[in-house]
Write a structure and sequence with these properties.
Strand content: under 5%
CATH architecture: Orthogonal Bundle
Largest sheet: 2 strands, antiparallel
Radius of gyration: 22 Å
Order of helices and strands: HHHHHHHHHHHHHHHHEEHHHH
Strand order of the largest sheet: 1-2
Structural class: mainly alpha
Number of helices: 20
Shape: globular
Bound molecules: tryptophan
Distance between the termini: 20 Å
Helix content: over 70%
CATH topology: Hydantoin permease
CATH superfamily: Hydantoin permease
CATH class: Mainly Alpha
Oligomer: single chain
Amino acid sequence: MTTNEQSRTQWLGRWGFVLAATGSAVGLGNIWKFPYMTGEYGGGAFVLVYLVCILSVGVPVMMTEIALGRRGRGSPIDAIRRVVTESGRTSAWSLLGWMAMACGFMILCFYVVVAGWSFAYLWKMLSGGLAGSSVDDMAAIFGANNANPFSLGAWSTLVTVATMVIVGKGVQGGIEKSVGWMMPGMVVMLLIMIAYGMFSGGFGDALHFLFAFNAASLSSEGMLAAMGHAFFTLSLASGAILTYGSYLPRHASIGRTTLTVAVADTLVALMAGLAIFPVIFANGMEPNSGPGLIFMSLPLAFQAMPLGTLFGILFFIMLSMAALTSSISMVEATVSWLTDNKGISRRAASWGTGIVLWLVSTLAMLSFNIGADWTLAGKHFFDWLDFLTSRLMMPLGGLGMVLLGGFVLNSSVMRDELNLAPTVYALWLFMVRYVSPLGILLIFVDALEIANVDFASQWPVLLLVLAVITVIGELASPRLRQSLVAKS
Ligand code: TRP
C-alpha cells in the first residue's frame, strides 16, 4: 500500500479531480441524450425521476468507486485486486475491474463516432453546409453525412487522435491541463446560449416543459431509462471514475467531491435543456424528435433565428469539447493499466490503445453505411456496443461495486476511506446495500425482458420489497460476514 501511495501520480491542483471527473460526466449524455430523452419521456416528470436516480443510485455508486480507486491506487483491475486482498477476500473480484475497463473502452468505440458527428456539424456550420428549409432537408443532410464512410471515418479518426494525444501527455500535463480550460470554456458558452434562449421567445415554454410536473406522463419505460441514464451520465462502472479516484489525494473528502460532480453534471444537463428547447419552441417545433433533436431540429431552428449561425457554431464547439473531456476518461483506465503492468511508457500505451480503438470504432462507424446490413439479432455493431454496455455491463458493474463496498470488504475499509459523519455513513450503507442493488435489478429485468412490470404504478410494491430485503439483509449480514472471515 505505502509504496503505491508514494509512487502514484496525483492531481496537481485542488480542483484537478473535480474538473476531470466533471469533464468525464458532462458529455454527449448531457447535451445530446438528456434533452431528447426528456423530450421523449414527457418533460418534468422524467426530470424528477432522473434526479431521484442520481441521488439514490448514482451518488452512492460514485462514492464507492472513488473510494476503491483511492484505496487501491491503481487501474480498476489492480486497485480492486489490492483492496479485496487487503480484506482477505478472493482476488476473483478483479474480474469486476476487467469488465469495467472493457466497458469504458467499448463505450468509447461508439462514442467517438457520435463525437465525430459533432465535429462534422461544427464544420458544416462554419462552411454553410447546413442550408435546408425543412426537417426532411435536415434528415437528408444527416443521412448524407453518415453515408460516406471516408468522411465519417475521418471525423471519428480526428476524435480518436485528439483523445490519445491528450491522454498520452499524462494525468497532469494532458488530462488535468485540458479540462482546466475546456470545462470553464464550455460552461461560459452554455451560459451565453441560455442568455440567447431567453430572448428567443421560447424560454417560458422551455421552462414549463422541463420543470412542470405532470404525473400522467410518467411511464415505466421512462423511469428505467432515467435509471440507466444516471449510470451513463456519471460515467459509472466503466473504469473512468475509479481510475481518476486513484489519483485523488488522501486529504480530499470523497463525499463532498462526489456531490460537487453530481450537482455540476445535473446542472449542465438542465442548462443544455434551457439552451436547446427555447430555440426549438420559438420555431414552433416539437420537443420529441428523438436522437435527431440536436442534429436536425436544432440546426434548422438556428437558421431561422437572428445570429443563428453564430450560435450554432458556438453550440457545436461546446458539444465537441464536452465530448472530448469525456472520451479521455474512458480510455484512461486502459492506458493506466498498460503503463503499470506492461513496462511501457504512457505515450506508447496511448498509441497502442489508440490503434485498437481506431480499428474497432471504424467497424462501429461502418454500421451507418456499408455495414448497415451486418446485423446480429436485428442490431448492427454500433447498437450492440451501446446495448451491451448501457444495458448489461454498466448495471452489472455497478452492482458489483456496491456489493463489494457494502458487504464484501471489511467494513473499516470504506468507513476509513469515506470518513463520513456516522449518520451520513449509515445512509450511504443503506443506499449501497439495498437501494442501489434493487434499482439496478430493475434495469436488468427490463433489459433482459424478464417481466413486463409497470413500475410507475407499482412503486408501493417496490417500497415493500425494499423494506423486506433491508430487514433480511441486516439480520443476515453480520453472520454472513463472520462466516466469510472465519474461512479466510
Ligand atoms: N458521462 C459521459 C456523458 O454523459 C459519457 C462517459 C464518459 C462515460 N466516460 C464514461 C460513459 C465512462 C460511461 C463510462 O456523455
